[in-house]
# Entry
Amino acid sequence: MHAITIPEPGGPEALVWAEVPDPVPGEGEVLVDVVASAVNRADVLQRQGHYDPPPGSSVYPGLECAGRVAALGPGVTGWAVGDEVCALLAGGGYAEKVVVPAGQLLPVPTGVSLAEAAALPEVACTVWSNVFMLGRLTAGETLLLHGGGSGIGTMGIQVAKALGARVAVTAGGPEKLARCAELGADILIDYREQDFVTEIRKATDGAGADVILDIVGAKYLAQNVKALAVNGRLAVIGMQGGVKAELNIGALLSKRGTITATSLRARPRAEKAAIVAAVRDNVWPLVADGRVRPIVDRTLPMAEAAEAHRVLESSTHVGKILLLAPTA
# Structure
């Protein structure tokens, strides 16, 4: 098969479409013929040499895919050769074939094309596990999403609105904010021109956000604590703004606040399977009835993954960037 390889870490040009050995499914695994994959920030970090795959995982980038089941490993039940699926991966999505633990497979939701389904697994699992399983967001509460125009942001807006929450977003510029509004965001904050702490307090009569999903990290830590409501929950899932910051414990105590920090990629298979099952039970029905849909900015041939990375790093996109395998 062919896959995107990274012979040496570096810029987008470090991504090389090359012939590599076919993967073979082991116990409890499924081989998938990939139709499409999607680009994530973690792929950029891996390309730069900052985020190695977990031990035993594929060395190729790509944290999600969609395709057709090609073969079943020993002990796999509930799936058949030819099934159309999408999957949460620890790596290997930028390839013509990938091996997936059976517990990380999802059926393609009703009303979604097979290629579009590649835009769903990583963002749906990230949003559901952090905002709802850990953050316990409920109807009537306020969610603040940083990076509202990102894949995670566009998914978070839709799911939270569908389940009755009020949604605030930060994004860069009026065009991205307009797209967020189209998806249902209630409170629109241009981080380039506005202070999000001031704006979220103004919009909530001084209360603040009940749950904050943060992709920025250190740069936003102090402001996020200020923006929390009493009993608020902050979920940190990214480090785009650095890894070290000073935390005012007194401010956090005054909010009776909670901070969690999670990474999906390195979790044990059993934890991922539990998250995937929860997504299938809770998010997939919202996709099937049209209240949540994959937001795709553009599609590119998988061999042109370098260009996809350039687009992602420019932050000019809204939603997901898909990579189509040659057979798609």
Summary: The CA atoms of residues 302 and 323 lie 5 Å apart.
